[in-house]
Write a structure and sequence with these properties.
The complex is a heterodimer. Chain A is an all-alpha fold. Chain A is built from 16 helices and no strands. The termini of chain A are far apart. Chain B has a single domain, classed as Roll (SH3 type barrels). In chain B, helix 2 runs antiparallel to helix 3. The chains are: A mainly alpha, B alpha+beta. At the A-B interface, helix 4 and helix 13 of A face strand 2, helix 2 and helix 4 of B.
Amino acid sequence: MKRVFAITLGILTAIGGFVDIGDLVANAVTGARFGMRLAWVVVVGVIGICVYAEMCGRVAAVSGRPVFDLVRERLGPRIGLTNLIGSYLATLFTLSAEIGGVAIAVELATSVHYLLWVPIAAFVVWVVIWRVKFEMMERIFGLAGLSLVVFVVALIQLAPPWGQLAGQAVTPVVPAGEDWATYGFFAVALFAAALTPYEVFFFSSGGVEERWTRKDLVVSRLNVFIGFPLGGLLSLGVMGTAATLFLPLGVRVESLDQVALPVAVALGKLGLAVVILGFFAATFGAALETGLSAGYTIAQYFGWQWGKLVRPREAARFHTVVLVSILIGVAMLLTTTDPIMITEYSLVFSAVALPLTYLPILIVANDRDYLGDQVNSRTANALGVTYLVIILVVAVAAVPLMIISGMGG
Amino acid sequence: MKIPDPLRVDFHLLDRQVVDPDGYLIGKVDDVEVSVGEDGVPVVTAIHIGQHALGNRIGGVIGRWLAATARRLHETGDPRPLRVPFELVHKVDSAVVLSVRHELMDPSALEIWLRDNVIGRIPGARDAG
């Protein structure tokens, strides 16, 4: 019974922890502009994160080595360093965007301008990373993030023309009035939102910190294969509500309060309160994950002591990187750059940086020296290689599409 | 000692994580010292850990910068990477496991400086998370 409870808790945490500012923004923006015509990208992205995270979980459990440790070992110090710079920047942009998201969520609740909340939000994020135990941190924000289920409830309450939404979802073509570059740009953004590098850095480093062994493989797989798809369903809920409310009116989503608006329309004040809690939990949880991931990438590349299980003074370099990254994230927001804009840049960066972190894991997942009998099965390799191709195409296309479409215009 | 035979320096050693018997993360194998024995067979005599060694391997502007910061931080005036004789390597698998505890080795200068001047000064730095 206790085991069932632990597994359920893990899955619920994975669902609630799946959605972050990138998913909220990308799904709402595309829902408002394209209806459900890009919903297929979310499905492709969620299967991708499942394939990738399952491999990382297995590598972490059997060999005890987290992602960035292997990145340098397999790619060598030079390409590893290029990769480190790309991945760190992507994580840093995401961290900044998440802190901005926390501040905007508090602004929605208090009507005090978000820029005033940015330093406070960042300080609280840092204190939680500094003081709160890993498991507790993951659980609280994961479970609170589940309140984003309110998007699915709101969608049902809005009584959308289901047939029309389904029709859009199965005919993924560029609608009239939009060009293919914009369509492609948002496809890249949605894919990157579902398959963000930091999620995998965090997942595999967390596995190493919690000292996963072969026995934990089942739990890790359940978390991935049930938790992530259900998390993806929340993303589709966000897209669906935006498609129902904004698309017919031709309204574009340009801020986080617009993302919440369909819920307020459908469920009133109570719904709005729940959605603000959900925004807060999702962005705060992701701020913790990205803050730690910034430290993980650099510490694991150089082989430094890292993690939350040791006393901070024994991992001084790691904690310094986390602290400095949060400060840079705050500085980026205080230039008054729009957090939505930072989010969109973070998604493009993530898409570009992904292949070089994905490839070493795919290679190591086939290495018997590391994994013994737990190497990739034929199915895992077929999927793994298919996604390597997809990830490469997305990475190559990301920047040209961003330029041609002018960030989606 | 459990060491793969044949031992491939580039594949089994370079850039692998070095840990002590308790799993404490000491650093990466940033460089390897090889000498040629009397029978003409090269043997690995030591592994080097530290940004100086890494910087020299990377080369170029970034490599030089990495090595220079590592030298600058050294307080003892003896700017060399940590040298671990290969006899102290207990096992080479997904990590290079040493047979001695990390307290017996020179700690990284950067770690010490940040511990004494930044992280160690923040309340709660002695509590595990």
